[in-house]
Fold Phosphate transporter.
Amino acid sequence: MFDLFSGLDLWVGISLVLALAFVLAFEFINGFHDTANAVATVIYTKAMSPYRAVILSGIFNFLGVLLGGVGVAYAIVHLLPVELLINVNTGHGLAMVFSLLAAAITWNLGTWYFGIPASSSHTLIGSILGVGLANALINDVPLADGINWGKAIDIGLSLIFSPLAGFIIAGALLIGLKWLYPLSKMHKTPETRRDVDEKKHPPFWNRLVLVISAMTVSFVHGSNDGQKGIGLIMLVLIGIVPAKFVLDLNSTTYQIERTRDAAIHLQQFYNRHSDSLGEMLALGKADDADMPDLYRCEPKQTEATLKGLLKDLHGVSSYNDLNDDERVQVRRYLLCLDDTAKKVGKLSDLPSREKADLEKLRKDLTSTTEYAPFWVIIAVALALGIGTMVGWKRVVLTVGEKIGKQGMTYAQGIAAQLTATAAIGMANIYSLPVSTTHVLSSGVAGTMVANRSGLQGSTVRNIIMAWILTLPVSIALAAGLFWLSSRFVG
C-alpha cells in the first residue's frame, strides 16, 4: 500500500492522502446514513436490540464489501469519459476528485441531520455527472462527450425503477401474507403486542425472519454501496497516480497473455463479420495515421487500436516492464476496444451465440483494468462497517413511524426487507448501483398502502423531495465546486 507514495512530490502526496481520507469519510457517512435503513425495521419491531443490530449489521456490511466484487465499482468509474479518467495527474484532476467528494459529503450530511432517507447513491452519481458536465463546459467539449451517457442512462433507470419496484413488490408481498395467514400475530404492531399480549418481542418465527432479512439487507448493501466506495478510491488512484493503477501491476503473465489473445480473437471476430461490421468499424480503410492527437474512442479506429495494443503488449510478461506512458496508452486501448465491442454486441443482426462470444472477449480484455487492490477493499469495508455503528437513530424513527399513519407491523417489516434484499441482490448481479434507502423506504410505503394504514404526507413529501432534488442539487454542487477550483488551479 505505502509504495504508492514512492516517487510522488510533496503536493501530490498530500493531495492523495486527503483524497483517500475524503472517500473513506464518504463511506463512513454512508454507513450511518444508509445502513440505518437496513436495521430500521429490525430495531423498530424490537426483533433485536439497537446495539446488537448495528454491530451485526456492521459485520455483514463488512463481509458484503469483502465478497461483493468490483462490477458496481467500475460502473461508477465508467460514468466519466476515458480522457478525464486518464489525463488527470494535474491540478484539474485533483479538483475533480475533491469537488465530487465534497458535494457528495455535504448533501449526505445535510439530509442525515434532518433525518431524511436520501440516497447516497443518487448523491454520488449526481456529483460525478456534475464534474463530467462542468469539465466539458470548461474545455469546450460537447456535453454529449462530457460523460458516458450510455452508462449514465443504465444507472439512472435502475435508480428510478428500483424504488417503484420496491413499492409494488413489498405491497404485493404483504397482501400475500395477509391472504395466507390472516390471523397471524405477524400483523400486529410492536405497540399492540406489548399492550395486548404483554410481550416485548415479535413471535419467534417472525423475529427470526426479521433478523435474517435485516442482515441480508446489510450484506447486499455492503456489496452494492461498498463497491461505490471502491470505485471512488480507484477513481482517485487512477486520477492522481495513474502510472501505478491504470493497469493491475500484479497481473500474471497468463493474465496478460489472455488479454493479448482476447485482442487477437477480437480482430478475427471483426474480420469474420466484415460484411456487416465493415462500414461501422471502417475495416480495411483505417491506418495508424487516423489516430487523433487527443485520443477518442471511435469505432472507425478499431483496427488501429488493435494494432497499437498488440504492438505494446508484444513480448510483455509483466506490466512493470512498460513505462508510465505505455501503461496509460494500453489502458486507453483496452477501454476503447471494450466500448466498441459493447456497441457491436447490441446490433440486432448479430447471432446470440456470437454475442455471447463477444461478451467473453470483453471480460478477458478488461480483466487487468477492472480490479481493486485488497487494501482498498479492506479500507472501504472497515469505513462502511464502523459507520454503520453510529448515527442510526434519526433515520430509524423516520422509517418505522413517520412514513405511515400507523406503526409498522412485523409482516410489513418482513415484506419490505425481503423486497430490498431481492432488488439489491439483482442489481449486484447486473453490476448496477441502486439505493438501499429508496428501495427500503418505498417498500415500507408500499406495505402501508397495501395495509390501508395511510401515509404521512409530510414525511413522504420530504422523501420524494429528497429523491427529486438529490440529483440536480449534487450535480450543481459538484459542477460549481469543480468550476471554482479549476479557476484557482488554472
Summary: The radius of gyration is 24 Å. The mean pLDDT is 81. The chain has 20 helices and no strands.
